[in-house]
Write a structure and sequence with these properties.
Layout (H helix, E strand, L loop, with lengths): L1 E6 L2 H12 L5 E6 L10 E3 L7 H11 L3 E4 L2 H5 L2 H7 L7 E3 L3 H8 L1 H10 L7 E5 L3 H10 L4 E5 L8 E4 L2 H12 L9 E5 L5 E9 L4 E3 L4 E2 L2 E3 L3 E4 L4 E4 L6 H21 L6 E11 L6 E9 L7 H4 L7 H10 L13 E9 L22 E4 L2 E3 L5 E3 L3 E9 L2 H12 L7 E2 L6 H7 L1
Parallel strand pairs: 1-2, 1-4, 2-3, 4-5
Antiparallel strand pairs: 6-9, 7-8, 7-9, 10-11, 10-16, 12-15, 13-14, 15-18, 16-17, 18-22, 18-23, 19-22, 20-21
This protein binds adenosine monophosphate (AMP) and glycine.
Length: about 425
Protein backbone atom coordinates (compact mmCIF):
# COMPACT_ATOMS: atom_id res chain seq x y z
CA UNK A 1 0.00 0.00 0.00
CA UNK A 2 1.00 3.59 -0.57
CA UNK A 3 0.04 5.62 2.45
CA UNK A 4 -0.36 9.36 2.98
CA UNK A 5 -0.05 10.68 6.54
CA UNK A 6 -1.09 14.25 7.26
CA UNK A 7 0.60 16.39 9.93
CA UNK A 8 4.02 17.61 11.02
CA UNK A 9 4.55 16.96 14.73
CA UNK A 10 6.10 14.41 17.06
CA UNK A 11 2.78 12.56 16.90
CA UNK A 12 3.12 12.12 13.15
CA UNK A 13 6.78 11.06 13.44
CA UNK A 14 5.75 8.36 15.94
CA UNK A 15 2.85 7.20 13.74
CA UNK A 16 5.09 7.24 10.64
CA UNK A 17 7.64 4.94 12.34
CA UNK A 18 5.00 2.33 13.11
CA UNK A 19 3.40 2.55 9.64
CA UNK A 20 6.78 2.16 7.95
CA UNK A 21 7.53 -0.97 10.01
CA UNK A 22 4.50 -2.69 8.53
CA UNK A 23 5.11 -5.10 5.69
CA UNK A 24 1.84 -3.86 4.22
CA UNK A 25 3.36 -0.42 3.59
CA UNK A 26 5.28 0.03 0.32
CA UNK A 27 5.72 3.79 0.49
CA UNK A 28 4.77 6.47 2.99
CA UNK A 29 4.29 10.17 2.25
CA UNK A 30 3.92 12.76 4.99
CA UNK A 31 2.26 16.11 4.32
CA UNK A 32 4.14 18.21 5.26
CA UNK A 33 6.18 16.18 7.81
CA UNK A 34 9.41 17.35 9.45
CA UNK A 35 13.11 16.50 9.49
CA UNK A 36 12.32 13.37 11.53
CA UNK A 37 9.70 11.91 9.19
CA UNK A 38 12.06 12.59 6.24
CA UNK A 39 14.49 10.05 7.74
CA UNK A 40 11.96 7.28 8.28
CA UNK A 41 12.43 4.19 6.11
CA UNK A 42 10.16 4.16 2.99
CA UNK A 43 9.10 7.71 3.85
CA UNK A 44 9.18 10.95 1.94
CA UNK A 45 7.83 14.38 2.90
CA UNK A 46 5.54 16.23 0.50
CA UNK A 47 5.29 19.98 0.83
CA UNK A 48 1.53 20.23 1.18
CA UNK A 49 -0.68 22.16 3.60
CA UNK A 50 -3.01 19.68 5.40
CA UNK A 51 -5.91 22.08 4.87
CA UNK A 52 -5.40 22.29 1.12
CA UNK A 53 -7.62 19.40 0.06
CA UNK A 54 -6.99 19.90 -3.67
CA UNK A 55 -3.25 19.59 -3.03
CA UNK A 56 -3.88 16.36 -1.08
CA UNK A 57 -5.92 15.10 -4.03
CA UNK A 58 -2.96 15.80 -6.35
CA UNK A 59 -0.67 13.77 -4.03
CA UNK A 60 -3.16 10.89 -4.08
CA UNK A 61 -3.09 10.84 -7.88
CA UNK A 62 0.64 11.34 -8.25
CA UNK A 63 1.64 8.62 -5.79
CA UNK A 64 -1.28 6.25 -6.23
CA UNK A 65 -2.28 6.52 -2.57
CA UNK A 66 -4.37 3.73 -1.02
CA UNK A 67 -4.74 5.03 2.53
CA UNK A 68 -4.98 8.46 4.20
CA UNK A 69 -4.15 8.76 7.91
CA UNK A 70 -4.98 12.14 9.46
CA UNK A 71 -2.86 13.22 12.45
CA UNK A 72 -4.21 16.62 13.61
CA UNK A 73 -7.80 17.75 14.19
CA UNK A 74 -7.92 20.79 11.91
CA UNK A 75 -8.30 18.91 8.58
CA UNK A 76 -10.92 16.62 10.18
CA UNK A 77 -12.96 19.52 11.53
CA UNK A 78 -12.62 21.19 8.11
CA UNK A 79 -14.04 18.04 6.45
CA UNK A 80 -11.15 16.25 4.73
CA UNK A 81 -12.88 12.88 5.21
CA UNK A 82 -16.12 14.18 3.69
CA UNK A 83 -14.12 15.61 0.78
CA UNK A 84 -12.61 12.19 0.06
CA UNK A 85 -16.04 10.51 0.35
CA UNK A 86 -17.71 13.04 -1.94
CA UNK A 87 -15.31 12.68 -4.87
CA UNK A 88 -15.38 9.54 -7.00
CA UNK A 89 -11.62 9.68 -7.69
CA UNK A 90 -10.89 9.66 -3.93
CA UNK A 91 -13.71 7.48 -2.62
CA UNK A 92 -11.67 4.28 -2.61
CA UNK A 93 -8.89 5.75 -0.50
CA UNK A 94 -9.13 4.26 3.00
CA UNK A 95 -9.42 7.27 5.28
CA UNK A 96 -8.56 6.97 8.98
CA UNK A 97 -10.28 9.91 10.68
CA UNK A 98 -13.92 10.91 11.17
CA UNK A 99 -15.97 13.20 8.97
CA UNK A 100 -17.13 16.66 9.93
CA UNK A 101 -20.13 15.34 11.87
CA UNK A 102 -17.99 13.15 14.14
CA UNK A 103 -15.26 15.77 14.43
CA UNK A 104 -17.76 18.00 16.24
CA UNK A 105 -16.94 15.93 19.34
CA UNK A 106 -13.76 18.02 19.40
CA UNK A 107 -14.84 21.02 17.32
CA UNK A 108 -17.74 22.01 19.58
CA UNK A 109 -17.71 21.58 23.37
CA UNK A 110 -21.46 22.25 23.43
CA UNK A 111 -22.03 19.43 20.91
CA UNK A 112 -19.82 17.10 22.98
CA UNK A 113 -21.66 17.92 26.22
CA UNK A 114 -25.08 17.37 24.60
CA UNK A 115 -23.81 14.09 23.14
CA UNK A 116 -22.66 12.89 26.58
CA UNK A 117 -25.91 13.93 28.21
CA UNK A 118 -27.98 12.21 25.50
CA UNK A 119 -26.06 8.96 25.92
CA UNK A 120 -25.68 8.96 29.69
CA UNK A 121 -21.90 9.34 29.66
CA UNK A 122 -20.46 10.67 32.95
CA UNK A 123 -19.17 14.25 32.69
CA UNK A 124 -19.30 17.47 34.72
CA UNK A 125 -22.75 19.12 35.03
CA UNK A 126 -22.98 22.13 32.72
CA UNK A 127 -25.00 24.75 30.89
CA UNK A 128 -24.07 26.61 27.72
CA UNK A 129 -24.72 30.24 26.96
CA UNK A 130 -24.86 32.20 23.70
CA UNK A 131 -23.82 35.85 23.23
CA UNK A 132 -27.28 37.18 24.15
CA UNK A 133 -27.42 35.08 27.34
CA UNK A 134 -24.61 36.69 29.34
CA UNK A 135 -26.99 37.69 32.16
CA UNK A 136 -28.32 34.12 32.51
CA UNK A 137 -24.73 32.85 32.46
CA UNK A 138 -23.70 35.20 35.25
CA UNK A 139 -26.70 34.14 37.31
CA UNK A 140 -25.86 30.46 36.73
CA UNK A 141 -22.27 31.06 37.91
CA UNK A 142 -23.79 32.40 41.14
CA UNK A 143 -25.38 28.99 41.79
CA UNK A 144 -22.02 27.17 41.48
CA UNK A 145 -19.12 26.90 43.88
CA UNK A 146 -15.54 27.91 43.09
CA UNK A 147 -13.47 27.09 41.13
CA UNK A 148 -15.43 28.08 38.02
CA UNK A 149 -14.78 26.39 34.68
CA UNK A 150 -15.47 28.35 31.46
CA UNK A 151 -14.94 26.76 28.05
CA UNK A 152 -15.10 28.40 24.63
CA UNK A 153 -17.35 26.22 22.48
CA UNK A 154 -15.07 26.09 19.41
CA UNK A 155 -11.42 25.34 18.70
CA UNK A 156 -9.24 27.94 20.42
CA UNK A 157 -5.75 26.49 20.00
CA UNK A 158 -5.87 24.89 23.45
CA UNK A 159 -6.39 28.24 25.16
CA UNK A 160 -10.19 28.28 25.37
CA UNK A 161 -10.57 26.86 28.90
CA UNK A 162 -10.43 29.16 31.92
CA UNK A 163 -10.49 27.98 35.53
CA UNK A 164 -11.13 30.80 37.99
CA UNK A 165 -11.32 30.95 41.78
CA UNK A 166 -13.21 34.20 42.07
CA UNK A 167 -16.89 34.66 41.15
CA UNK A 168 -16.58 38.28 40.00
CA UNK A 169 -13.63 37.38 37.82
CA UNK A 170 -15.54 34.42 36.38
CA UNK A 171 -18.52 36.67 35.54
CA UNK A 172 -16.21 39.22 33.93
CA UNK A 173 -14.40 36.55 31.87
CA UNK A 174 -17.69 35.00 30.77
CA UNK A 175 -18.82 38.37 29.43
CA UNK A 176 -15.48 38.91 27.68
CA UNK A 177 -15.61 35.48 26.08
CA UNK A 178 -19.17 36.00 24.83
CA UNK A 179 -18.07 39.37 23.45
CA UNK A 180 -15.40 37.66 21.34
CA UNK A 181 -12.28 37.12 23.47
CA UNK A 182 -11.57 33.97 21.41
CA UNK A 183 -13.34 35.22 18.29
CA UNK A 184 -16.05 32.98 16.88
CA UNK A 185 -14.83 30.10 19.10
CA UNK A 186 -16.32 31.77 22.19
CA UNK A 187 -19.59 32.95 20.61
CA UNK A 188 -20.98 30.19 22.81
CA UNK A 189 -19.51 29.29 26.22
CA UNK A 190 -19.89 26.13 28.29
CA UNK A 191 -19.94 26.73 32.06
CA UNK A 192 -19.36 23.56 34.03
CA UNK A 193 -18.84 22.05 37.43
CA UNK A 194 -15.22 21.72 38.55
CA UNK A 195 -14.00 18.12 38.85
CA UNK A 196 -11.33 17.46 41.44
CA UNK A 197 -9.14 14.50 40.54
CA UNK A 198 -6.25 13.18 38.47
CA UNK A 199 -6.31 13.41 34.68
CA UNK A 200 -5.43 10.72 32.20
CA UNK A 201 -5.96 10.01 28.51
CA UNK A 202 -7.62 6.97 27.04
CA UNK A 203 -7.37 6.32 23.30
CA UNK A 204 -9.82 4.34 21.25
CA UNK A 205 -9.56 3.14 17.65
CA UNK A 206 -12.98 2.45 16.16
CA UNK A 207 -14.50 1.33 12.87
CA UNK A 208 -17.81 2.90 13.94
CA UNK A 209 -19.11 -0.29 15.50
CA UNK A 210 -16.23 -2.18 17.08
CA UNK A 211 -13.35 -0.67 18.97
CA UNK A 212 -9.95 -1.32 20.51
CA UNK A 213 -8.84 0.52 23.62
CA UNK A 214 -5.20 1.54 23.16
CA UNK A 215 -2.74 1.93 26.06
CA UNK A 216 -3.53 4.69 28.58
CA UNK A 217 -1.27 7.72 28.95
CA UNK A 218 -0.84 10.89 30.93
CA UNK A 219 0.52 14.11 29.52
CA UNK A 220 2.11 17.09 31.23
CA UNK A 221 0.63 20.28 29.84
CA UNK A 222 2.19 23.05 31.91
CA UNK A 223 5.58 24.57 31.08
CA UNK A 224 6.89 24.51 34.66
CA UNK A 225 7.87 21.69 36.98
CA UNK A 226 5.20 20.72 39.51
CA UNK A 227 2.53 21.61 36.90
CA UNK A 228 3.02 25.36 37.12
CA UNK A 229 3.04 28.19 34.60
CA UNK A 230 1.50 28.49 31.17
CA UNK A 231 -0.22 25.74 29.22
CA UNK A 232 1.76 24.20 26.35
CA UNK A 233 1.06 21.62 23.67
CA UNK A 234 2.49 19.05 26.12
CA UNK A 235 5.89 18.69 27.78
CA UNK A 236 6.05 14.93 28.09
CA UNK A 237 3.99 11.83 28.67
CA UNK A 238 4.02 8.40 30.23
CA UNK A 239 2.22 5.15 29.45
CA UNK A 240 0.64 3.19 31.08
CA UNK A 241 -1.01 5.07 33.95
CA UNK A 242 -0.76 2.80 36.97
CA UNK A 243 -4.03 3.78 38.67
CA UNK A 244 -5.97 2.93 35.52
CA UNK A 245 -6.09 -0.68 36.68
CA UNK A 246 -8.40 -3.44 35.46
CA UNK A 247 -11.34 -2.29 37.58
CA UNK A 248 -11.00 1.36 36.57
CA UNK A 249 -10.64 0.46 32.88
CA UNK A 250 -13.72 -1.74 33.09
CA UNK A 251 -15.67 1.33 34.23
CA UNK A 252 -14.10 3.37 31.44
CA UNK A 253 -15.18 0.79 28.88
CA UNK A 254 -18.71 0.24 30.23
CA UNK A 255 -19.57 3.82 31.11
CA UNK A 256 -17.66 5.74 28.47
CA UNK A 257 -16.10 3.90 25.51
CA UNK A 258 -18.97 1.53 24.64
CA UNK A 259 -21.70 4.22 25.03
CA UNK A 260 -19.62 6.67 22.97
CA UNK A 261 -19.21 4.30 20.01
CA UNK A 262 -22.86 3.16 20.31
CA UNK A 263 -24.01 6.78 20.67
CA UNK A 264 -22.26 7.83 17.46
CA UNK A 265 -23.87 4.95 15.63
CA UNK A 266 -27.34 5.70 17.10
CA UNK A 267 -26.99 9.34 16.14
CA UNK A 268 -26.24 8.25 12.57
CA UNK A 269 -22.69 9.58 12.66
CA UNK A 270 -20.22 7.38 10.76
CA UNK A 271 -16.92 7.31 12.62
CA UNK A 272 -13.73 5.60 11.52
CA UNK A 273 -10.69 6.74 13.41
CA UNK A 274 -9.33 7.64 16.81
CA UNK A 275 -11.26 8.92 19.79
CA UNK A 276 -9.10 10.50 22.47
CA UNK A 277 -11.00 10.63 25.74
CA UNK A 278 -9.61 13.12 28.25
CA UNK A 279 -10.67 11.78 31.64
CA UNK A 280 -10.68 12.93 35.23
CA UNK A 281 -10.41 10.11 37.76
CA UNK A 282 -12.46 11.35 40.72
CA UNK A 283 -12.41 9.60 44.09
CA UNK A 284 -15.87 8.60 45.32
CA UNK A 285 -16.56 10.44 48.59
CA UNK A 286 -17.87 7.39 50.40
CA UNK A 287 -15.67 4.58 49.13
CA UNK A 288 -12.58 6.38 47.85
CA UNK A 289 -12.81 4.35 44.62
CA UNK A 290 -11.86 6.15 41.43
CA UNK A 291 -14.61 6.91 38.94
CA UNK A 292 -13.97 8.20 35.41
CA UNK A 293 -15.58 11.42 34.09
CA UNK A 294 -15.08 12.80 30.59
CA UNK A 295 -13.38 16.20 30.48
CA UNK A 296 -13.20 16.37 26.72
CA UNK A 297 -13.15 14.38 23.52
CA UNK A 298 -10.61 14.80 20.75
CA UNK A 299 -11.00 13.14 17.38
CA UNK A 300 -7.31 12.29 16.89
CA UNK A 301 -4.40 10.95 18.89
CA UNK A 302 -2.78 13.16 21.54
CA UNK A 303 0.61 14.78 21.18
CA UNK A 304 2.88 13.86 23.07
CA UNK A 305 0.83 10.87 24.24
CA UNK A 306 1.24 9.18 20.83
CA UNK A 307 5.01 9.24 21.32
CA UNK A 308 4.51 6.87 24.30
CA UNK A 309 1.44 4.97 23.12
CA UNK A 310 2.47 4.04 19.55
CA UNK A 311 5.85 2.54 20.46
CA UNK A 312 3.89 0.21 22.81
CA UNK A 313 1.50 -1.05 20.12
CA UNK A 314 2.88 -4.32 18.79
CA UNK A 315 0.06 -5.09 16.35
CA UNK A 316 0.59 -4.10 12.73
CA UNK A 317 -0.94 -0.61 12.62
CA UNK A 318 -1.61 -0.69 8.87
CA UNK A 319 -3.64 -3.86 9.39
CA UNK A 320 -5.56 -2.12 12.21
CA UNK A 321 -6.20 0.91 9.96
CA UNK A 322 -7.43 -1.26 7.10
CA UNK A 323 -9.81 -3.00 9.51
CA UNK A 324 -11.08 0.38 10.67
CA UNK A 325 -11.94 1.16 7.06
CA UNK A 326 -13.49 -2.24 6.33
CA UNK A 327 -15.42 -2.44 9.61
CA UNK A 328 -13.92 -5.70 10.88
CA UNK A 329 -11.78 -4.51 13.78
CA UNK A 330 -13.39 -7.20 15.98
CA UNK A 331 -11.57 -9.92 14.05
CA UNK A 332 -8.15 -9.07 15.43
CA UNK A 333 -6.51 -8.78 18.83
CA UNK A 334 -4.57 -5.72 19.86
CA UNK A 335 -1.12 -6.66 21.19
CA UNK A 336 0.60 -4.25 23.50
CA UNK A 337 4.18 -4.16 24.79
CA UNK A 338 3.91 -4.62 28.58
CA UNK A 339 6.88 -2.33 29.17
CA UNK A 340 6.45 1.25 30.41
CA UNK A 341 7.16 4.24 28.19
CA UNK A 342 8.31 7.71 29.21
CA UNK A 343 8.67 10.63 26.84
CA UNK A 344 10.27 13.99 27.58
CA UNK A 345 9.74 16.94 25.25
CA UNK A 346 12.63 19.31 24.62
CA UNK A 347 11.45 22.81 23.74
CA UNK A 348 12.87 26.15 22.62
CA UNK A 349 13.69 28.59 25.46
CA UNK A 350 10.79 31.06 25.85
CA UNK A 351 8.12 28.61 24.64
CA UNK A 352 5.07 28.81 24.91
CA UNK A 353 5.75 32.55 24.56
CA UNK A 354 8.18 34.06 22.10
CA UNK A 355 11.17 31.89 21.11
CA UNK A 356 13.93 31.86 18.52
CA UNK A 357 14.10 29.42 15.58
CA UNK A 358 16.96 28.11 13.47
CA UNK A 359 19.23 27.00 16.35
CA UNK A 360 21.58 24.15 15.36
CA UNK A 361 20.84 20.95 17.29
CA UNK A 362 23.71 18.75 18.45
CA UNK A 363 23.91 15.16 19.59
CA UNK A 364 20.78 13.48 18.22
CA UNK A 365 22.88 10.83 16.46
CA UNK A 366 24.54 9.90 19.77
CA UNK A 367 21.26 8.72 21.28
CA UNK A 368 21.30 4.94 21.08
CA UNK A 369 18.91 3.52 23.60
CA UNK A 370 15.84 5.69 22.98
CA UNK A 371 13.62 6.85 20.18
CA UNK A 372 13.90 10.51 19.26
CA UNK A 373 10.77 11.91 17.66
CA UNK A 374 11.01 15.24 15.90
CA UNK A 375 8.37 17.94 16.32
CA UNK A 376 9.70 21.38 15.34
CA UNK A 377 12.83 20.56 13.37
CA UNK A 378 14.06 21.32 9.89
CA UNK A 379 17.17 20.62 7.83
CA UNK A 380 18.95 23.87 6.97
CA UNK A 381 20.31 24.40 3.45
CA UNK A 382 23.71 23.07 4.51
CA UNK A 383 22.11 19.92 5.92
CA UNK A 384 22.38 20.74 9.64
CA UNK A 385 19.43 19.94 11.86
CA UNK A 386 17.94 23.15 13.28
CA UNK A 387 14.98 24.09 15.49
CA UNK A 388 11.86 25.33 13.73
CA UNK A 389 9.20 25.41 16.43
CA UNK A 390 8.43 25.62 20.14
CA UNK A 391 8.32 21.90 20.78
CA UNK A 392 11.44 20.61 19.06
CA UNK A 393 12.23 16.97 19.89
CA UNK A 394 11.02 14.33 22.25
CA UNK A 395 12.87 11.39 23.66
CA UNK A 396 10.95 8.18 24.40
CA UNK A 397 12.25 5.13 26.27
CA UNK A 398 10.74 1.77 26.98
CA UNK A 399 11.78 -0.18 30.07
CA UNK A 400 10.52 -2.83 32.45
CA UNK A 401 9.42 -0.23 35.00
CA UNK A 402 8.31 3.38 34.79
CA UNK A 403 11.24 4.72 36.88
CA UNK A 404 13.68 2.88 34.59
CA UNK A 405 12.01 4.33 31.50
CA UNK A 406 12.22 7.85 32.94
CA UNK A 407 15.84 7.40 33.91
CA UNK A 408 16.75 6.17 30.45
CA UNK A 409 14.97 9.06 28.73
CA UNK A 410 16.71 11.63 30.92
CA UNK A 411 20.12 9.97 30.50
CA UNK A 412 19.86 9.88 26.73
CA UNK A 413 18.33 13.32 26.44
CA UNK A 414 21.45 14.77 28.10
CA UNK A 415 23.33 13.98 24.88
CA UNK A 416 21.17 16.43 22.89
CA UNK A 417 21.58 20.17 23.12
CA UNK A 418 21.04 23.52 21.47
CA UNK A 419 21.22 27.09 22.65
CA UNK A 420 18.42 27.83 25.12
CA UNK A 421 16.92 24.36 25.14
CA UNK A 422 14.48 23.63 27.99
CA UNK A 423 12.71 20.53 29.33
CA UNK A 424 10.85 19.55 32.48
CA UNK A 425 12.79 17.32 34.85
CA UNK A 426 9.72 15.93 36.60
CA UNK A 427 7.82 14.02 33.91
CA UNK A 428 5.99 11.12 35.60
CA UNK A 429 7.09 12.10 39.11
CA UNK A 430 3.53 12.81 40.30
CA UNK A 431 2.53 9.24 39.46
CA UNK A 432 5.51 7.83 41.35
CA UNK A 433 4.54 9.95 44.37
CA UNK A 434 1.01 8.49 44.25
CA UNK A 435 2.57 5.06 44.67
CA UNK A 436 4.50 5.76 47.89
P1 LIG B 1 -9.93 20.88 27.86
O1 LIG B 1 -9.46 21.80 26.77
O2 LIG B 1 -11.40 20.66 27.90
O3 LIG B 1 -9.11 19.62 27.93
O4 LIG B 1 -9.54 21.61 29.22
C1 LIG B 1 -8.21 21.99 29.49
C2 LIG B 1 -7.84 21.57 30.88
O5 LIG B 1 -8.69 22.23 31.84
C3 LIG B 1 -8.05 20.10 31.14
O6 LIG B 1 -6.97 19.35 30.71
C4 LIG B 1 -8.22 20.07 32.64
O7 LIG B 1 -6.96 20.14 33.28
C5 LIG B 1 -8.94 21.35 32.92
N1 LIG B 1 -10.38 21.13 33.03
C6 LIG B 1 -11.29 21.16 32.04
N2 LIG B 1 -12.53 20.94 32.51
C7 LIG B 1 -12.43 20.76 33.83
C8 LIG B 1 -13.36 20.50 34.89
N3 LIG B 1 -14.67 20.37 34.66
N4 LIG B 1 -12.87 20.37 36.13
C9 LIG B 1 -11.54 20.49 36.37
N5 LIG B 1 -10.63 20.76 35.45
C10 LIG B 1 -11.05 20.90 34.18
N1 LIG C 1 -1.67 16.21 24.64
C1 LIG C 1 -2.94 16.80 24.50
C2 LIG C 1 -3.40 16.97 23.14
O1 LIG C 1 -2.87 16.42 22.19
O2 LIG C 1 -4.39 17.67 22.96
Amino acid sequence: MNILLVGSGGREHAIACRIAESERCSALYVAPGNAGTAQVNKCCNVDVDPLDFEALRAVVHKHDIDMLVVGPEAPLVAGVTDFFAANSDLRNVMVVGPGKAGAQLEGSKDFAKQFMQRHGIPTAAYRSFAANEAAEGEAFLGTLQAPYVLKADGLAAGKGVLILDNLDEARHELREMLEGKFGQASAKVVVEQYLDGVELSVFVLTDGKHYKILPTAKDYKRIGEGDTGLNTGGMGSVSPVHFADKRFMQKVEERIVAPTVRGLSRDGIPYKGFIFVGLMAVADRATGELDPYVIEYNVRMGDPETECVFPRIKSDVVDLFERVWRGNLQQTELTVDPRAAACVMMVSGGYPGHYAKGKPIQGVEQVTDCQVFHAGTRLADDGTLVTSGGRVLCVTSLADSMPMAMLKSYQELAKISWEDCYFRRDIGQDLLKMLV
